Amino acid sequence: MTVLIIGLLIPLFGTILGSAFVFFMKDEMSVRLQKSLLGFASGVMIAASVWSLLIPAMEMETYSGKWAVVPAAIGFLMGMGFLLLIDELTPHLHIGTDKPEGLRSHLSKTAMLALAVTIHNLPEGMAVGVVFAGAENGTSQISLASAIAVSLGIAIQNIPEGAIISMPMRTAGNNRWRSFLIGSLSGAVEPIGAIAVLLLASFLLPILPYMLAFAAGAMFYVVVEELIPEASSGQHSNHSTIGFSFGFVLMMLLDVMMG
Fold first, then answer.
1. Are 122 and 43 in contact (CB under 8 A)?
2. What pLDDT, on a 0 to 100 scale, did the predictor assign at position 138?
3. From its phi and psi, is residue 107 left (phi > 0), alpha (psi between -120 and 50) or beta?
4. Confidence (pTM)
5. Which of 6, 147, 187, 193 could anchor a disulfide with 135, C-beta 3.0 to 4.6 Å?
6. Burial environment of residue 194 by CB neighbours within 10 A (0 to 12, 13 to 18, 19 or more)
7. Where in the sequence is the domain holding 196, given as residue range(s)?
8. Quick one: which H or E segment has residue 201?
9. Rg (CA), the chain
10. In whole angstroms, what is the distance from residue 183 CA to residue 175 CA?
11. In Å, how far are 32, 60, 138, 193, 227 from 131, measured between CA atoms?
């Protein structure tokens, strides 16, 4: 139980650590660093989706022969669709833009920036919850070490993500402590999402392959719709490509070596 609790909280600790950068850095993060960090986060999420979610989802259905890929395909598309719906309905504002997305609202800029990050973090929490649900229920394709690897990988990518959140909050006019708290709280949705999945584990176990792929699809949506476009726009996009490479390889190594 202790390992489970720690595993669920590790990603939040990563966000808190990254948000603390607001105390040690200048008011604005350099474009090169921001793009590198966005690329790194994208690489970690893509690698985690493939090695920790999609491949185990297909391995669970090997008895189906060539049809083993179907649950993964269906779950993946459902995850993409779910995040698309959330993205369309939730009023939010992305870093570096002044045009809100989602339904019209009278929320403050700070609140909409925080909601944008919450949308990003939701699938990560689901991913952690579903891999721990598989490990706790004795699923042979997902070991406890593999689940810990996913949690660690997401925590590592949450460190730069926390900094990317708290720094613009500071630039938007919030003091350092408020920026730190907003950045840290943006990661709270991850353990909440993970716990919600675990509480439903007994019901979800029969459809675990679909749920693994669902979480992968949701994470892919965030990467393709938000992170990569932000990382690739303007100058110094090559820094995001380098960051992506390092993030992808790190998560791949963690999953394979610990799994």
1. no
2. 65
3. beta
4. 0.86
5. 147
6. buried
7. 2-23+31-258
8. helix 201-204
9. 18
10. 12
11. 34, 13, 11, 12, 23
Q: Give the other-Cβ count within 10 Å of 232's Cβ.
A: 17
Q: What is the pLDDT of residues 186-224, one digit of tens each?
A: 888 889 888 888 888 777 778 889 999 999 999 999 899
Give the integer Cα–Cα distance in Å for 52 and 46.
10
Q: Tell me the two tokens of residue 231.
A: 């990382």
Please give the DSSP secondary-structure letter assigned to residue 39. Answer: H
Phi, psi of 234 (to 5 degrees): 75, -155
- Planar angle of CA 136, 137, 141, nearest 5 degrees: 90
Q: Which of 71, 34, 69, 22 is nearest to 176 (CA)?
A: 22
Q: Quickly state the pLDDT bin for 167 (edges 50, 70, 90).
A: confident
What is the number of H-type helices and E-type strands within the chain?
Answer: 12, 0
Q: Which one-letter DSSP state was computed for residue 61? A: T
